[in-house]
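tool_call: predict_structure(chain=1)
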Amino acid sequence: MNKPPRAKERLETLEKYSARATLIIAGGVIIEVFALDLFPHPVWEKVFGTLGNLAVALGLILEYVVIQRTIVATRLANAEAESEVAAANERAAAAEQKAAEANERAAEIERITAGRRLNQSQFENLVIAIRKLSVSLTVLIQNQRSDAEAFTFANDINRAFTAAGIQTRRGENEFLTLASPLFGVLISVDKRLDFGAFVEVFGKGGIQVVVSQNPPETHSTGFTPAPNLYVFVAPKPPPDMVI
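tool_result:
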């Protein structure tokens, strides 16, 4: 099925008819002026005069019709243009919405897949909190064996303790088992120390910790002297897991 002509196409067609109307009017004038000079006879004067007048009248009528149709077509063209602009704005808004949703998904994917790190503010807050501890510390920091992400995060924590003037030891361990999987950061505090203070210290650095009920020496076999603070950086928790 043929689609109706658009307003722009109608305007172009009307322009052609307007040009034809002008030619018809001009033809009528030519007939009246020149034909009478070529055929100066009363009969021919009447014939060519009538033809010329008819041609001019026909051209004027056609031109009038074209003008009226042009007015209507112009209004339609303006309406179509406004509609196209509105549709384009809607498409642009939809594209912006899709782009925003894509950016949100990308940000969420980046959040899920990004490794844990201490940013500068968290690092500085953790250093300050460690310095405020009025206890003598022997610290052992380990990470899940062969886990690059846990290794990097454990190094960040180790740097904070070192920057606070605490001597530390580093190592690897293996706590991830099917029977009792461990994720996040585990700390074990000597019973003579207040474990709540250490939970608060790590919280200053934005680190949520799990407190082990076992003393540090049970986690640090082979290290002498045994630490009074043991930190184990396990694998990053899965996205849907709350620890």
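agent: The chain has a mean pLDDT of 82. Proceeding to next step.
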